[in-house]
Design goal:
193 residues; 7 strands; Rossmann fold; 37% helix
């Protein structure tokens, strides 16, 4: 994957002119993820943000959960310099210790197939309890997304393609959340798929 495509023009187009997400919308999402985690008895003490972009998740945690150890990463040199992330490629890197929550928001659709396979293995290694994953699928492209505010220059794969790779490591629990299979969180039968 070329990292130059995620330079100033990309951020201007998708986060300033007609944003796909805003700090407010990500704030609602982060609050929901933290609240569901608390409901299941998962205390979020550490977060890894993969593909952190403009840092909306990080900013929310700094304001609302300042004691959480937060590590934000991105493959883009521009994003790392402008927003203060560590430069990491999740297809080639995994942290040495797992995080309670890993956020991978809008990343996997940019990777080729073999890099997605490697990234999912690294995400599993990075996750102690929960993974928040957003990746648009072929179905989303055809039925859900707003083509005017979404980057369409990516890989459009079926949801089953991703699930096949995720289920050896995670249990899907809904709303973009996946629980680590080896984690200690018990779920009711209908809370998971």
């Amino acid at each position: 994957m070329s990292t130059e495509r995620f330079g100033p023009g990309y951020y201007r187009r998708f986060y300033e002119q007609d944003p796909v997400h805003t700090a407010t919308s990500i704030g609602h999402l982060a609050q929901g993820v933290v609240s569901l985690s608390a409901w299941w008895g998962v205390r979020i003490r550490s977060v890894l943000d993969v593909g952190a972009g403009p840092g909306f998740w990080r900013d929310w945690f700094r304001e609302h959960q300042p004691r959480v150890r937060y590590v934000s990463t991105d493959v883009s040199a521009y994003a790392c310099e402008r927003y203060g992330h560590q430069r990491r490629d999740i297809a080639r890197w995994a942290p040495s210790t797992p995080f309670d929550l890993v956020v991978c928001h809008g990343v996997l659709q940019y990777l080729n197939n073999s890099d997605v396979d490697a990234a999912i293995i690294n995400l599993a290694a990075a996750t102690r309890h929960l993974l928040y994953l957003e990746v648009p699928t072929k179905y989303d492209h055809e039925h859900v997304i707003d083509a005017g505010s979404t980057d369409l220059d990516c890989h459009w794969r079926a949801g089953t393609w991703y699930r096949k790779r995720l289920v050896p490591h995670f249990v899907q629990i809904g709303a973009g959340l996946w629980a680590k299979r080896t984690g200690a969180v018990p779920f009711y039968e209908l809370e998971k798929s």
